[in-house]
Amino acid sequence: MLDNLILLIFCSFLSHIMAGTMTVISDTSVYTIINSQTIYATNPANYSYAWKSIDGASWIWYASDNTKIEAALFIKCFSVPGTPTSSNINIGADDNFTVFLNGRLVGMKSLTSFFLTEIDMLSKTVYGQNCLHIIVENTVDYAGLIFKATISYQ
Ligand SMILES: [Ca+2]
Q1: Other Cβ atoms closer than 10 A to 7
Q2: Please, are residues 40 and 142 in contact by the beta-carbon 8 Å criterion?
Q3: Quick one: signal sequence residues (predicted)?
Q4: Above 70 in pLDDT, residue 13?
Q5: Percentage of the chain with pLDDT > 90?
Q6: Which of 11, 19, 82, 127 is most buried, most CB within 10 Å of its CB?
Q7: C-alpha 8 – ligand 1 centre gap (Å)
Q8: DSSP 8-state class, residue 127
């Protein structure tokens, strides 16, 4: 009985020290299959009203010229060091985005998708290796992507 109580306290202590929250943001470490290189997209002054900022993240594009009408695929893999208890992505893109986590659709948005959208992705987040695949389509003017995923685990 006492052994079980000590074990319970120990496990509770372990889960407490193992618990944490991590973030995954758009920055130069994001991978694109087009040229293996991501360059920060500039934030044009005349678009600043629409392109919202996310603390710690950057608006990115795969090329310095972010005015082409085209689509690009962005990939970011990360490791979750425990069982996920919550997982959300805050994302904006110019113009359309489709997000997959571990090959499963998380969400998509078109038109005013540069306004930030929060999407729950807990059911697709796993303990260990995870990969985000984000397809962004630029239909007019400037192109860009910004995101921040916040994952809690225990
Ligand atoms: Ca655009």
Answers
A1: 10
A2: no
A3: 1-19
A4: no
A5: 52
A6: 82
A7: 55
A8: S
Q: Say how many Å lie between the CA of residue 116 and the centre of ligand 1.
A: 15
Instruction: Report every protein residue that has its C-beta within 5 angstroms of ion ligand 1.
Output: 94-95, 138, 141
Structure tokens at 138: 């630029």
Only one residue has tokens 């962004």, namely: 136
CA of 120 to the centre of ligand 1 (A): 25
Domain 20-153 fold is Jelly Rolls (2.60.120)
Break the chain into its structural domains and give their ranges.
20-153
Amino acid at 106: V
DSSP state of 45: G
Could you tell me the distance, in angstroms and rounded to a whole number, from the CA of residue 113 to the centre of ligand 1? 10
Note whether 131 and 75 are within 8 A (CB).
yes
Single-letter code of the amino acid located at 80: V
